[in-house]
Each structure stands twice: as structure tokens, then as C-alpha cells.
Amino acid sequence: MPDGLGRGLDAPLFERVVIIGVGLIGSSLARVARRKNLARTIVACDRSAAVRERVVALGLADETYEAPAEAVRGADFVILCVPVGACGGVAEQMKEGLAPGVIVSDVGSVKQSVVNQVAPHLPENALFVPAHPVAGTENSGPDAGFATLFKGRWCILTPPGGSDAATDRVRAFWEGAGSNVEVMTPAHHDLVLAITSHVPHLIAYNIVGTAADLEEVTQSEVIKFSAGGFRDFTRIAASDPTMWRDVFLNNKDAVLEMLGRFSEDLTALQRAIRWGDGDALFNLFTRTRAIRRSIIDVGQETAEPDFGRRKVDEA
Amino acid sequence: MPDGLGRGLDAPLFERVVIIGVGLIGSSLARVARRKNLARTIVACDRSAAVRERVVALGLADETYEAPAEAVRGADFVILCVPVGACGGVAEQMKEGLAPGVIVSDVGSVKQSVVNQVAPHLPENALFVPAHPVAGTENSGPDAGFATLFKGRWCILTPPGGSDAATDRVRAFWEGAGSNVEVMTPAHHDLVLAITSHVPHLIAYNIVGTAADLEEVTQSEVIKFSAGGFRDFTRIAASDPTMWRDVFLNNKDAVLEMLGRFSEDLTALQRAIRWGDGDALFNLFTRTRAIRRSIIDVGQETAEPDFGRRKVDEA
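^ inputs. structure came back:
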């Protein structure tokens, strides 16, 4: 098939899947669930009337609801796709509607905090399998989603009791969406993502802010000459503000730990520049090139250069 | 024409253009000079025999030399395309061969240091117009270049006496390569590029190094889950180590100044996270989104999302 997702399942994996929060991730899940026959019925739930209108216009779901408790009635799989800080509130709102044996999951970029927020609200016979698809773009909202967003990406599951039947079903769902699945503890997830995602975002936001505040260099100069490297930071720094505020507030310890290491290392580099220690610079810059090569080798990136975005052909 | 570069000039702009150092930038210049008829004769000079062999195999030049003094004989335009720290040495090696009235330029990412290194070696009747094309990729060497690298990108000229006839000819050359040209002082250039290019590169190198040194998170985890944001830093941190060592050693003051501001701002963000100041985070993250929009509006980037690199189609 042209989308590279292969053909879908013969029978739906779940009967009634409820997606709560239809932004970039939620709407991408709705699209791939439909295309790969991961659910017989797709239910969308969003508190925003404008989002619900887009869901209907785009044909993303079979049913659309405002209230979580109504949306989840009769569901066998509920996925919270709201910002990390909103998960506890939504869990509380939906708990009355949950059927026995329902599997509840999420897509949050922080896991320990989601577990702490959500678990207390769930009935004893609900099965909680937190998940984090490591995929996204800098765009937000139901129109930004697409069915292949998760293809070839990793999805991390952090089930409280390790692997079990519910975990296997959630794994099958994400594999159906094209992802590779890995299981780890919430605490380890939060540490790994602090360095591979959270601190990189914080740094990108920070330098774009620093550049905006300069007096000697005009805003228009920063924008004009951004192709030198800055441009890539602005893409990351265009990510959803609410989502990222919640990530930093909810993964405080790991982010502060990784940020401390980053700052120490940066101070050492600053000193090398001040004292003209070219060898220290050269050695680091050589070492980092090898890591890039590994990322390309494991298929999380192509070798195609990306600075010269307008590359048209080779001479 | 399919490359979007338009048709070339009717008569060559220069008679004999010498490109000293045939890496990513030098080889891209050779390609576009040929395609757009910017030079009657293209001369390539490189101290590496392996590079000269590739130049011949790729058909990038009409003549190939090892020694700068031989290469530049009879030239009306000489462009140094070597790392910033090597410019002074090359200028000294080539000075004997320079013809009266020759225009000498470069492509260095730092300008004041290049002026200081090169100017003392030039004969009085040589015309020096330093240049910096703000374009590149993370790849290096003669095979990495392509004719459209400079298309739609800015090239900054820092002529010592402001605009004059020689500056106009260098401007025409870069406009012929598809670039927009801007003139400023070397000192201002170095400040602008410190924030739009040099500090972003240093930060990218630094975080990739920090991630490589962690004990709690394995290297393979960093590589696997890089799609969360880290991946974009690794691309920047794969840039040429020699070139970038020289940039930092030769733009020390501006880099240290901008790095100081960056670190101050990062400390403030760190404090906001520690104290749970969500509003401070949200306000910065909203402000930085607007800057991204401006970069797209002025044509230095497309709105196409780039995190989900494997995006195949929309559902």
C-alpha cells in the first residue's frame, strides 16, 4: 500500500476505542485506528466545541462527545491524549462511566506523574497501561495529525505490574499503528526522555528567547540569518506551549538533574573557548559525529542533509 | 529550468575564478559557477591529493593545483574556502602569485578574524571583499556539495571600505549563485552569527556530549528514543569538527558574550521549573512560537513539519 503501513487487521483489535483529547496525537491515532482496523467503533471526546466540529468535518470518529463520563461508556479501550497536567482531572471526570475490564492508557511524555494522577481515580477492575509514543511534530490540533505519525517510531509502555494480558493488547494496538514497543518503569522512562526530549526542548525554547531579547542584533537579522543553525531550534521551540509547560512541571527532578549536567558540560566548553583549547573542542566535535551516525544506522533518521532544505538536485 | 536556478549569464562574470579548498562550500561554488556561467575558467586548489582526485572525477574544475601560488596566477577572482583558522596561512602561500587588480574573497563563518589574518598578506593592488554565505549542511567534502546550496540563502559581505566596484562584482557573483546579498561590518557580522549559528552549534555539540556521558541512560536508549527532539541536535552536532573548532577560537568574544546571556536565561528557566512557575514557562513558549512563524514568512523555512520525517500521506 502507498502509505507503507501495510494492510489492516481482519477483525478489529478493540470493539470501542475512546480517544480523549483530539489534538496532533489523538487525531493521528483516530486516523491510523480507522485505517488499520484497530477498533470497530472510534469515539472522540474533546471539551472544545471547535475541535469536535473539526473531528466531524474530517470524519475522524464514529461518535463525538464533550463529557468524558459519557464518552467512555461501554468502551474496552480508553486513551487519554490530553496534556500531562490534565490527566488527573480527566480521569476523575470519566471514572463513573468506565466499564469493568476496560483498559485505560495515555500518550503523555511523562509517566510517573501520570501514574500518580490517574491511578487513584480508576476502579479496581480497570487495567491501567500507561504509554508514550515518541513521535510528534511542532504542529497542534486535529488538522495536524496524520496516520503514519507513529510508523517506525518507538512507543514506551510503563505497566505497573510489568507485562500481562492488558499490556499485550496495548502493545498490539501500537504495533498495529506501525510502532516498535518497549516496556520500562515510569521512573526510567522519565530519565531517558529528560535527556532525549525534555532538555532539548527546554534549550531550544531558551535560545530562541535569548535571541529575541538582544539589543545589538535586530529581530529581523536573527530571522534572516537563521539558516546557520538557529532555524532548527525554532522548529522545536514552536511546539505546543501547554503540553510542554506540563512536561517540565511534571518531570521536574529528572529535568533538573539532566540540566545540571548539561550546564556543567557547557561551562567546561566555555572555558575551552576562553583559553583557546582547540583540542578539547575538536575532540568533542569528533565524538558527537559518531552518535549521529548511530542514529542513522538504527533507522531513526535518514542520512539526507537537512540544512540545505531547498536542495533540488546534484550538479 | 528544473533546478530553479534560472538560466546562466550570456558572458562569464569572471575570466578565471580560483577556489582554494574544495569541500562542501568550495565544491558547491564550483558547481554553480559552471552551471550559471559565472567564470570562463574554474580553477580548483586543494592540498589534499584525494580531494584533487575527486575534483577531477566529478569534473568540477578546468584546472587543478596543489600550491596556492601556482593556482592563483592570472586569476581575477580568488575565493578561500578553507577553515577560518587556515585563511592566514593560505593567504601567505598565495600572495606571490596574485595578479594586480585581483579580487580576493572567502566564505568563512567569522569575519573580523579573517580580515586580520588575510589583509596583511595581500599586495596593495589586490581588492579584498570578505564574504560569508549563510548556507551549509552537516556533510563535508567535495562529494557533499550541490549547485543549489546557496539558492534563496543570504550571503553577507564585509568589505573594508563599504561598497565599491569590487564589492559590486562579488555581489553579482553571489546573486548569480542564487543568494541574496547584504553588506555589514565584520564586527556586526560576528555578533549576529554568534547567536544565529555559533552558539546553536555549541549547544548542540554540548548536549550530544552530555547524553553520551550518562551512566543511568544507555547510549542505545539515547539513540533509540532520539525522535523526541534530540535527533535534530545530533544533525547539527555532526558538522565538520575542524571548521567549527576554528569558528569558536576565532569568534571568542562574541560567542562568550552570547553564551553568557544564554546561560543566564537558562538559569532563570531552571528556577521556574524548580519553583513550579508554569506561567513563566508558558509565556516564553508562546513567544518563541511567533518567531518560528516569522522565519517561515520570510522564506527561510517551509511550514512542513519535520519531526515526523517519514510522513507519507494524510489520512
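Chain A touches chain B through 124 residues (CB under 8 Å). The two ends of chain A are 33 Å apart (CA to CA).
thumbs up if we can close this ticket
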